[in-house]
Here is the input.
Amino acid sequence: MPEDEGPPVQVRRLGSVPYRQGLTLQEARVRERREGKIPDQLLLLEHPHVITLGSSAQEDHLLLTPQELIARGVELCQAGRGGDVTYHGPGQLVGYPILALRTHEKDLHRYLRDLEEVLIRALAAFHVQAGREEGFTGVWVPEGKLAAIGVRVSSGWITSHGFALNVDPDLSRFSAIVPCGIQERPVTSLSRVLDRQVSQEEVIPRVVQAFGEVFRRTMVVV
Amino acid sequence: MARIEVPMPQMGESIAEGTVSRWLKKKGEKVQRDEPILEISTDKVDAEIPSPEEGVLVEVLVEEGETVEVGTIVAYLDPDAEAGAGAGEGEAEGEQPAADTAEAPGQEASPELEPAAPEAATEEAPQATPQAELREPAEEEEKEEAPAAPEGPETAEERLKTRSTPVVRRIAEEHGVDLSRVEGTGHAGRVTKQDILAYIEGRGEEGEEEPAAGTTAPEVAAEAEAPETPSAKAPSAPSAPSDLWTRFYNEVQHPEFPVRSADDVETMDKIRRLTAEHMVLAKRVAPHVHSFIEVDFTRIDGIRGANKARWAEQGAKISFTAFVVWACSRLLREFPQVNGTVSGNNLIYRGNVNVGVAVDLDPGLIVPVIRDADDLSLVGIGRRIMDLAERARSRQLNPDEIQGATFSITNPGVLGTFVGMPIIPKGTSAILGTGAIEKRVVVVEDPETGTDSMAIRKRCMFSLGYDHRIVDGADAARFLARLKELLETFPEDA
Here is the structure.
């Protein structure tokens, strides 16, 4: 394992960042990473209520009109990532890895599976047995979907976007969309699964540790 | 001139296709080596594709929004051209994949479709016959017959592979879908993930496709979840000619009407679209007849009142619908035709009693299913209904909770309607509509003296919609009479 160890990953906690601002930030980080100005990073943050449309988003997976969404204080954004429609909001742990994938990592599906693995391992620390569903990217428990994944790989195999783990969001907010275009699949949260209120503080160290294990990196919390 | 091919790159071992989401460079523009030239998306990933060489983008073969296999040439670069070259050229040259796919299968594969990816390089030599077997009979013309899609004598399994990604095949297998029946919108008629998901969603619980060869039909319809390998089914795919009636009974088109200036126009959302299609097909296929009977609910009203507190202690609220579900589920075994369906030339009598109960989502409607309702007590049914309705409204139902109904109940009466004439869901033979329960003055006869008198009773009109191909009028009448009797003498210990 040590010989396979990649460069360290900086972990940056950004708190609550509006979605659009997060997009600009990621673009800048991707550029800086490509130019070698920054190391690999894992950005951890939270977004205010927003519904985002991935590149394969279908309008009819949005169950409310843009006007109705605005009336509910929900922003609507084009995301620049793969995937369909999703919701982000407080109580969700959003992770944006800005990584320059190494040669053996340059496989889009492998990258998706690796991200799933990170979350599956992190959840195992809470004795939650989460898993994958064939054909439906994301992390699942029998009660429903715990995490959504949608990524972008920019020129030079630099990643952005990433995962959104439902730690303790207001699940009713998902009712405005058909999450990820998967009809009739419920969305759930770690709080609901454990039947207690789970905080980001509990989850973040687990995710960071699992990220280091799966991607074989030393995680440096800045 | 030496033009450089830009193939759809292999972005991962298990990635077989990609959708061009955006061209970052226009025809005639100069690109540097490794400069992003286009953006592709494959299920959950967007990726920028860098240019393999420096040159001028002289030809774009794949438009934004098109999905092509890995290895397909998406553009040509000319390393020697000046910027601006080729910008004026028309796009309608015979080199576009779209044009190629329309060609006769017998022709040589066009050079530009020569797959660049090593794993695809073995696919060649298109032949008409093996592919023809795979075609949906009603499908249109050679569009599906891409020379780029494969090959010589090999198994149906292999042929199917070339038309779909592993993900699509896995989904198809899990849902028992014969991929050759799914219309593909991807490159060369390839079935994309969206296609298969839309197909499964549109299909609902029943194998609504016309029975493959009569013999397999009952199994297909009986257990939609039963995995059915594509290879097993493909060879027996029907070769029946597409004819007017097949299409009439399988395809739905909604005629358009002129919009007037003061009108609002809104695109149907998915639930509405699927509902619309289902309703049209259900009504087209099954000759509907409705019979009515009035049921006295006075006794049930009393039972409800007397037990309310006790049930509440058990965490249950027993609606009138629960009583109706209980009664129907006890009777359906006596009336197998009411708990069955017509499938091709066969009649299927269902082995389970799964009662669908319509839940108003306002807007929209969903029909969760109480499985094996005949095994449940009244309280059990009441609880199931509460749970399903609540989760239907919060959109937390699992797919298998809205599938597999063998009989349905809808309750237009909840909003005060006298009664309705419901449409029979596809793949079943009957649906019960219950009207509003109201106090009415009725004539009752004293059992001892035979004297008539007027009484105020709680009454409710029932309508049974049934498929007259399988349920005769007398069967329906007997079913309704038994239902009335059972409800009016409702056992205390149900």
Q: What stands out?
A: The first strand of chain B starts at residue 4 and ends at 7.
